[in-house]
């Protein structure tokens, strides 16, 4: 994705967005070709990890000085991962306090292999890009959610990629709940096309149940008022049918997200491209002032 700063209200204009499917061994070549074609040599870039590249764990913050926290977390999570803690890259963010605050602050801890981070860095550098930040889908989605009008009162975000999804509840820029879903938009392709009515009911019921459980937990555990709405990010086909199905199954009002309403575009993108480029847009918004 290529973008530039502007003086518009949103601060960013997307000049180009595209998805290039390729085998893993061809990533370097495909990325170099794209950099050459778009004249991006030397440009700053943001990279978003795949959900399969890392684990997100929750733990109570160790009682150590801030500068020692990352090292303390490394040993706290060593029994939760399947590789040596010394080979792990560790990042974290704080979660809001529950209604009945317990002892200590709860942290969401991101753990991935250091050699994977090095491989991604070398991939970008080999293509002539200046890698600035390696992000994760949860925070990229948070950046998009922070621009929604519902966000001040609280918003639920449902983002489905082809094989898996994310359900996230946030208020302002604070993430309260972020749940990975073991299914994605592929579960709904036949149903939304109207070719499998029985499957449509079962898939929608499963999704609505996941959403309702998270909404209930958000209100009860954190003592929050109901969210202002459920915003569904685009899927390749059937976005509005998915929204309509959720509106029939849930009390909360659902609507579709249009990235064109959150940032400026040189040309309107179809839902399939928006689905593929969603996290890239969210990661780019870091540079537009979303911390």
What features would you highlight for this structure?
about 290 residues; alpha/beta; Nucleotidyltransferase, domain 5; 5-stranded mixed sheet; 3-stranded mixed sheet; about 35% helix; about 25% strand
What is the count of DSSP helices, taking H or I runs of 4+ residues? 8
Order of helices and strands: EEHEEHEEHEHEEEHHEHEEH
Mean pLDDT: 88
Strand order of the biggest β-sheet: 10-9-8-11-12
Q: Which range does the strand content fall in? A: 15-25%
Helix content: 25-40%
The dominant shape is globular
Q: What structural category do the secondary elements indicate?
A: alpha/beta
Distance between the termini: 20 Å
Major sheet summary line: 5 strands, mixed
**What name does CATH use for the topology of the domain at 149-256?**
Nucleotidyltransferase, domain 5
The CATH architecture of the domain at 149-256 is: 2-Layer Sandwich
Q: Detail the poorly predicted runs.
A: 3-9
Radius of gyration (CA) equals: 20 Å
**DSSP E strands, number:** 13
| The CATH homologous superfamily of the domain at 149-256 | ATPase, nucleotide binding domain
CATH class of the domain at 149-256: Alpha Beta
How would you describe this protein?
By secondary structure, this protein is an alpha/beta fold. Among the domains are: 51-116, Nucleotidyltransferase, domain 5, CATH 3.30.420; 149-256, ATPase, nucleotide binding domain (Nucleotidyltransferase, domain 5, 2-Layer Sandwich). Helices cover 33% and strands 24% of the residues. It contains eight helices and 13 strands. It has helices at residues 27-37, 69-76, 114-126, 137-145, 189-192, 197-222, 239-249, 271-284, and strands at residues 2-5, 12-16, 44-48, 55-60, 88-94, 106-113, 130-135, 155-160, 165-171, 174-181, 229-232, 254-256, 264-265. The strands form four sheets. Strands 10-9-8-11-12 form a five-stranded mixed sheet, with helices on both faces. A three-stranded mixed sheet has the order 1-2-13, with no helix packed on it. Helix 4 (137-145) packs across helix 8 and helix 6 (197-222) packs across helix 7 (239-249). The chain is globular, with a radius of gyration of 20 Å. The model is unreliable at 3-9 (pLDDT under 50).
């Amino acid at each position: 994705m290529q973008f530039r700063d502007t003086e518009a209200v949103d601060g960013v204009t997307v000049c180009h967005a595209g998805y290039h499917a390729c085998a893993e061994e061809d990533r370097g070549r495909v990325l170099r070709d794209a950099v050459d074609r778009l004249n991006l040599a030397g440009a700053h870039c943001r990279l978003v990890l795949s959900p399969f590249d890392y684990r997100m764990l929750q733990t109570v913050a160790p009682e150590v000085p801030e500068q020692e926290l990352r090292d303390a977390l490394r040993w706290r999570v060593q029994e939760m991962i399947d590789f040596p803690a010394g080979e792990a890259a560790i990042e974290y963010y704080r979660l809001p306090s529950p209604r009945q605050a317990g002892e200590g602050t709860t942290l969401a801890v991101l753990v991935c292999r250091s050699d994977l981070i090095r491989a991604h860095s070398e991939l970008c550098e080999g293509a002539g890009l200046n890698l600035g930040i390696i992000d994760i889908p949860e925070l990229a989605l948070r950046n998009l959610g922070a621009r929604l009008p519902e966000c001040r009162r609280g918003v639920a975000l449902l983002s489905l990629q082809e094989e898996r999804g994310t359900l996230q509840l946030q208020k302002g820029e604070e993430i309260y709940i972020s749940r990975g879903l073991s299914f994605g938009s592929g579960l709904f392709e036949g149903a939304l096309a109207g070719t499998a009515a029985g499957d449509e009911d079962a898939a929608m019921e499963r999704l609505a149940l996941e959403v309702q459980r998270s909404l209930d937990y958000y209100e009860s555990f954190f003592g929050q008022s109901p969210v202002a709405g459920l915003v569904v990010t685009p899927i390749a086909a059937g976005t509005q049918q998915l929204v309509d199905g959720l509106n029939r199954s849930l009390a909360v009002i659902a609507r579709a997200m249009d990235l064109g309403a959150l940032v400026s575009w040189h040309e309107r993108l179809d839902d399939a491209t928006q689905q593929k480029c969603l996290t890239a847009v969210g990661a780019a918004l870091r540079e537009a002032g979303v911390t």
